[in-house]
Amino acid sequence: MADAPHAHGLGHHQHHHHDHGSHDHDHHDHRAGRQLDAAFAVATALNLAFVAIEGIFGFLSHSMALLADAGHNFSDVLGLVAAWAAMMLTRRRPSARYTYGLRSSSILAALLNAIILLIAVGGIVVEAGQRIASPEPINAVIIMIVAGAGVVINSLSAVLLGHNHGHQHDLNVKSAFAHMVSDALVSLGVVASGAVILWTGWLWFDPLISIVIAAVIVIGTWRLLRHSLDMALQAVPPGIDAEEVRTHLAHLPGVAAVHDLHIWPMSTTTTALTCHLVMPGGHPGDAMLKQIVDELQQRFAIEHATIQVETGDPAHPCVLVPDHVV
Fold first, then answer.
1. Is the dihedral of CA 104, 106, 108, 110 positive or negative?
2. Total-model pTM
């Protein structure tokens, strides 16, 4: 294999170019991180307190809908904590052992969040089925009051998380925001179910609503599970067309061929790329590599690119395990 210069999207080629603004950028990231920490802390505290209240009153009022919503909200609290912990871990600097840092922990947190939610659904459906077979007397007024408080708390949590625009592309933040919005809607549905029970006396309506809540959770969680599983398996991130990237690289001046192209998520917010460019004319110079890296970041949101340049010398072919990524 020929000598292989490389360019890193977050490496020394770009570092020199942006060094003059690195302090301001780091300061902005630090401030945005503090704001996000505060949002997660407040949202977690509010929802944990509400879970306790909802669980207690759900038990006292014999409402399966309230207990189901409490279980749902508790799973969301666990998800918030996991997402928050992952966000903090992604800020850890790379080490000799973890050369990329702990960025991928955010992917594991998103996957854990989805699994927790689906486990909670199973418990809700089983209990609801038993309640439909043997309805129990419930206090509809308590259901409406407690669920109404849930609408307020979840809406406030969603607003707090939604204001962190600097992290709007993070899967964990997006999923946490989506969960708070769906929780507010579910709590609104529980208020409506309490009103129906109060007016009609239909005791079976309460466990029926809990099953509807379970269905809402599954629908909302399936996409998160699929997305986080794809990221854990290092699939090309959604929104990036690997063929389009290959075509872009193949049409660069001096490039005769592109091979061993890999695109994968390093975290829920950062995408990496490696590839080999066959350039018979030889190494194009650092300025050209810098331009390629910048274009990949600006056009495809690929923040970390490593490019190997080869001349295509048949006496020294590049022999690697065949890839089928693209």
1. negative
2. 0.66
